[in-house]
């Protein structure tokens, strides 16, 4: 029973770490990343559809993203959706595709993105701590029901804390690495 609780905590903590890494892809570094468009959806025949499911999205060079719709009528819709998303660049429609030209990032923009990365890291840590609370509550319930002894509960609490500490350290390391990447010119 305790091993199930610990495995569940590890699984949930791993998901939190993966979510953090996915969040990091939305931050712009010195080189453009097509994942900056992941949260943009377009109206595709009455259904909100992710941009990458109606067009080919490519980073043609370090500062340009090219979006080529699979259907010509989608050009205007894609252009409007990108403009509405306010990602810091204006879409350029050349009749075939929509191009996004990203200017070089300023020092202030880089520092702002570092703040966002740290906030994302804190959000992930809160999730890890919630996983710890859930695991500890499950152990308390087992102890209260006399399913496990006080000594077993103490060992389980210690193990839960070790798992929490290890994932908090992984998050700190990820945030630190992302900070270095963001500040690199």
TrEMBL record:
User: Organism's domain of life?
Assistant: Bacteria
SUPFAM superfamilies assigned to the protein according to its UniProt record, in alphabetical order? Ribosome recycling factor, RRF
Q: Where in the cell is it found?
A: Cytoplasm
- Give a yes or no for keyword Protein biosynthesis in this entry: yes
Where is the Ribosome recycling factor domain positioned along the sequence? 20-183
Q: Which InterPro entries match?
A: Ribosome_recyc_fac, Ribosome_recyc_fac_dom, RRF_sf
**One Gene Ontology biological process:** cytoplasmic translational termination
NCBIfam families in the record = frr
**Which protein family is it in?**
Belongs to the RRF family.
Q: State the protein's name.
A: Ribosome-recycling factor
Q: Which organism is it from?
A: Campylobacter aviculae
Q: Which gene encodes it?
A: frr
């Amino acid at each position: 029973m305790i091993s199930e609780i610990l495995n569940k905590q590890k699984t949930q903590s791993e998901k939190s770490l993966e979510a953090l890494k996915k969040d990091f892809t939305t931050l712009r570094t010195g080189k453009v990343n097509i994942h900056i468009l992941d949260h943009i959806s377009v109206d595709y025949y009455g259904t909100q559809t992710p941009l990458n499911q109606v067009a080919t999205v490519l980073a043609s060079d370090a500062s340009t993203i090219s979006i080529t719709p699979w259907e010509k009528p989608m050009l205007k819709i894609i252009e409007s959706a990108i403009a509405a998303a306010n990602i810091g660049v204006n879409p350029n429609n050349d009749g075939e595709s929509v191009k996004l030209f990203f200017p070089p990032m300023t020092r202030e923009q880089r520092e702002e993105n570092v703040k966002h990365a740290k906030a994302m890291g804190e959000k992930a840590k809160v999730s890890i701590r919630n996983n710890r609370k859930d695991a500890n509550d499950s152990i308390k319930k087992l102890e209260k029901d006399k399913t496990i002894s006080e000594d077993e509960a103490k060992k389980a609490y210690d193990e839960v804390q070790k798992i929490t500490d290890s994932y908090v350290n992984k998050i700190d390391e990820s945030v630190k690495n992302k900070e270095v990447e963001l500040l690199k010119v």
